[in-house]
């Protein structure tokens, strides 16, 4: 049984078929990348999984339990964490408070709040900045803080929406190591435009195009697929 | 620790003032402390959670009438009346919140305003029970608390002080708790808070109930201490009043509502002595505050000097 399972997931916006009957399985402990041209429906698809956008048709199961109608905050408590594409920390709060909110709202017991916050911060290397105001951090550090908040939720599934966007080349290397260190405790679903990161990190790749699954497989298989080449490079 | 010490010092100072101030000023200070309780309740919703309500007069009035009507009709004592006021404000706020919290922002302002207007008109409509526009004077039997006559200066001051201190310290504990962190998160970015597992609706409803309970307690205390209940307390002025105190003193600070209430009271006194157009002076001062210290006095001080001020 897969950890997260979507069947026939559909969401149309007017005439636009943003997500159109997608089947998807996320296995425990895997890093799964979601790629596709701009407007392929990637962000809408993970928004359906996380509950930010309601599902029109289809079903979502987490460890066998139907969560299709669950509101987003309840899914977070079940273990689906979503980190935002545009960095969305609380700029006026301290780094500590940002992570503490995630610990409180997450799946863990949060009895030892300070310990849990410190653990999440040291995982991303921000432990020295706990008392800084989040808005004063550099962009790269804010992305790490966002990731620490995701980890502090103690998720089963961590959805990362374009996590390396805007990071410097040196920071990307550290980021890859960090994501690799998360599995197999957490399954990671990664939306990413940087193909080098995708090919390097992902165990499996799903390619979306016009809201439908175009191809799925290992990085090597996807790279060799003529359909994928056509979608990306044009006929 | 420093935070608790400074706030306890405020409480101690206010207690001392009760014995030092001449009667006229002591009565004013008692009134200020009761209105500060109202403003602290308002501040929980507006200052900490970002819920801009224009309907808090309804919760204040719910407190006055939940305390005043049983005193008037059935001869209830002051102590149970104060508790009824607290519950009345909380319950009315809860019912209002269940419906009004389906909206946000400007719509929330309008919906809460409408609820308060409906409450005001209800008070007028049932004037046989509520005394309507004229209101009613609370009988002396309902103004006795543990053998002390609340219409006399010192017992009145001490009661106002006790209720103020309890609300003040409870607010401090609340905003420094885990739930206080959630309140601020909802104010800063509700969608992000939701994606951290926080249910915005239930959290905001809880805040509104607490806010309404404090407002109701203030209303009940106002009735019991100053001896009058009337429908005018349910009008829009009494929704604006706590907002002005909070804006002037500093939204989202524990001591801001008290500071705002004291300054506004003093400002009105001074302006009243100078000119009959005292509202003009009050308005001008508010414009200046909003322009140059949009976070209020304590908010501006916190940004410059005391970063950890809750």
Automatic annotation (TrEMBL), chain A:
One Pfam family here? ABC_tran
UniProt KW keywords: ATP-binding, Nucleotide-binding, Transport
Q: Which CDD domains match?
A: ABC_Mj1267_LivG_branched
Give the InterPro entries listed for this entry: AAA+_ATPase, ABC_AA/LPS_Transport, ABC_transporter-like_ATP-bd, BCA_ABC_TP_C, P-loop_NTPase
Give the molecular function GO annotations.
ATP binding; ATP hydrolysis activity
- SUPFAM superfamilies the UniProt entry points to: P-loop containing nucleoside triphosphate hydrolases
A GO CC annotation recorded here is: plasma membrane
The ABC transporter domain extends over: 4-235
Q: What is this protein called?
A: ABC transporter ATP-binding protein
- Species for this entry: Fuscovulum blasticum DSM 2131
Q: What is the lineage of its organism?
A: Bacteria, Pseudomonadati, Pseudomonadota, Alphaproteobacteria, Rhodobacterales
Automatic annotation (TrEMBL), chain B:
Q: Where in the cell is it found?
A: Cell membrane
Q: Is this entry keyworded Disulfide bond?
A: no
One GO MF annotation is: branched-chain amino acid transmembrane transporter activity
Q: Which UniProt keywords apply?
A: Cell membrane, Membrane, Transmembrane, Transmembrane helix
Could you name the Gene Ontology cellular component terms for this entry?
A: plasma membrane
Mode of membrane association: Multi-pass membrane protein
Decide whether keyword Nucleotide-binding is in the record.
no
Where are the membrane-spanning stretches?
81-101, 108-126, 154-175, 245-268, 274-294
What Pfam families does the annotation carry? BPD_transp_2 (PF02653)
Q: Which PANTHER family match?
A: HIGH-AFFINITY BRANCHED-CHAIN AMINO ACID TRANSPORT PROTEIN BRAE, HIGH-AFFINITY BRANCHED-CHAIN AMINO ACID TRANSPORT SYSTEM PERMEASE
Q: Please give the name of this protein.
A: Branched-chain amino acid ABC transporter permease
Question: Which organism is the protein's source?
Answer: Fuscovulum blasticum DSM 2131
**Lineage, uppermost ranks:** Bacteria, Pseudomonadati, Pseudomonadota, Alphaproteobacteria, Rhodobacterales
